[in-house]
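Structure tokens please, single chain.
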Amino acid sequence: MARLSNYLLTLVGAFAFSQGTNAYDYLSHARSSSDALMQWYNQGTGVFNGIGWWNSAECITALADMQGLDPTHNFNDTLQNTFEINKNVWTTKSDFYDDEGWWALAWIKAYDLTNDQKYLGAAEQLFDDMAKGWTTNCNGGIWWDKDKTYVNAIANELFLSVAAHLAHRTWDIKYLNWAVKEWQWFEQSGLISKNDTINDGLDGGCKNNGYTVWTYNQGVILGALVELSKASFDDSYLVNARDIAWAAIETLTDSHGVLHDSCEKGCGGDVSQFKGIFTRNVAQLYTATSDPGLKQFLETNAQSVWKNDRDSQNRLGLSWSGPYATADASTHSSALMALIAAASVQGS
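Here you go.
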């Protein structure tokens, strides 16, 4: 508790720069930016121009989150179009299990919106393929890729999250068993450092490789543990989630409380997607815990995005602290997630 109090004191000081939450209509900003995201959508391919396969799953998730927050802002036709065009390639489009996890979570979100079983069925199909990657190489966990070259954090966090989400929706014990098994392995794997941050993966000797503490690795695990707590009726998982969330906030925010990855510009096309994933999952944790510091973190980042990282067409860039430089569907959808996350907790 002492450490958590220190985190809160740090954040309170950092947030003094903000103009106050009353100056920001997060929901209106999220609406405008979700509409702007559609400029990159390709109706013919069902994905978003200029970005990778998994990034399009995150764009779809952002639109679904927007609709869940404001049902009048309806993207059902987009979800349907993307699904129908690509329905035969979910488990064959990529050689990476994490890609499958992103799409599985996107379709679970679509199922939550529509109750259409086809979306849940796709998620279950993707999960079954991910489960084939389980390995005894490091006493458990799944491989990152189908060539079995690397055991990393993100693939295993996504495997846990998909299992927990499916357990909470289907009440099929196999998904709960997988989720518990994965978390027990993950917690003991060494991926979580002594300061509660999560490194990228394991080395050839199955030890923490000390690689970059990316924001998305600190984020996916939060939503996974929230869903596992719901599926198992065990709130102890939320304690682990809060420790990881606050360690990330302490480690990865600047002096104004704005989130950054340690490398952003020039670090490859994936990194631009990461920060929004963290904020989306922090919002889920806030909903489960009502931790006021998490809400303040989300509001501060949404404010900075809107004030410092936006052009005249409401396109959102890479650096949430600004200045705005340029945008693509990845930078934009990531920052949009920060706006949606703040809107989802406003007034709570």
